[in-house]
Design brief:
The chain is an alpha/beta fold. It folds into two domains: 105 residues, no CATH class; 144 residues, Rossmann fold (3-Layer(aba) Sandwich), CATH 3.40.50.2300. Helix 7 links the parallel strand 7 and strand 8. Helix 4 packs parallel to helix 6.
């Protein structure tokens, strides 16, 4: 292992403003390459094989083109948080009864996410309308379909296409005047309504420990999948006010950050 070195660096911005992602730069015998891990990001091939042993690191957000050879790492619990996000929407908009769900049929885990959302919605007496988008050109028609279904809010399932093109999605959502909830804080940072999800900064820092242990000889199969321990709720109060949504004080007090 002496010929293999790794340097963990932080890159910001990456794929747009307010994106912090971990890059692990590998070099072997003088030949180096860089791999950047993060939702909706492109990967270079050099060094990727080793890093994929970290196992679907942030597995719910990795593009479907990545090899499924990983056996260890950290999970973002993207699907598992569906019920919590719907409940947050319900709490923020007490009379909420109809929600449109923006999903990507081409993303493998979205089928499971949609099933979970429907189950949670039923328990909350919320009617769900699915609106699909596989590419940015689909955003407009999808939001139009949501409005035609008289949706009162939008649930955006995490997806690389939605993350990379969030500026366009946010603009269209604002024109549709739909309060929306996301998994990544980048969205409310840039004008979205609410986000709730794992603290990515904490997850990326923890992922560096996996890199270090594997480079020191640990077997990836011996490293368990870890769940996130820190979550963050971010509310853009300016957007809420522009939409005419009066978020209860109890929800604002529970937020990790309120953008005013």
């Amino acid at each position: 292992m002496s010929a293999l070195s790794a340097t963990v660096v932080w890159m910001k911005p990456l794929c747009g403003e307010n994106r912090t992602a971990l890059a692990v730069e590998l070099s072997r015998h003088g030949q180096s390459g860089e791999t950047v891990l993060g939702p909706g990001l492109r990967f270079t091939r050099s060094g990727l094989r080793l890093l994929l042993l970290l196992a679907r690191l942030f597995c719910n957000l990795l593009p479907s083109c990545c090899p499924r050879t990983a056996t260890s790492g950290l999970s973002l619990m993207g699907v598992d948080l569906s019920a919590k996000r719907l409940q947050l929407l319900k709490d923020a908009i007490p009379r909420l009864a109809r929600v449109a769900v923006l999903w990507n049929p081409a993303t493998p885990f979205h089928g499971e996410a949609v099933r979970d959302i429907k189950t949670a919605a039923h328990a909350l007496s919320i009617n769900v309308t699915l609106v699909a988008a596989e590419k940015p050109a689909d955003f407009g028609p999808a939001l139009s379909a949501a409005k035609q279904a008289h949706a009162q809010a939008l649930y955006v399932v995490e997806d690389p296409v939605f993350t990379l093109h969030r500026r366009r999605l946010l603009d269209i959502t604002a024109k549709a005047r739909l309060p929306s909830i996301y998994s990544l804080r980048d969205f409310p940072d840039e004008g979205g309504f609410i986000s709730y999800g794992a603290d990515l900064g904490d997850m990326f820092r923890r992922s560096a420990q996996y890199v270090d242990r594997i480079l020191k000889g640990a077997k990836p199969s011996d490293l368990p999948i870890q769940q996130p321990t820190r979550f963050e709720l971010v509310i853009n109060l300016k957007t809420a006010q522009a939409l005419g949504v009066a978020i209860p004080e109890s929800i604002l007090l529970s937020a990790d950050e309120v953008i005013r």
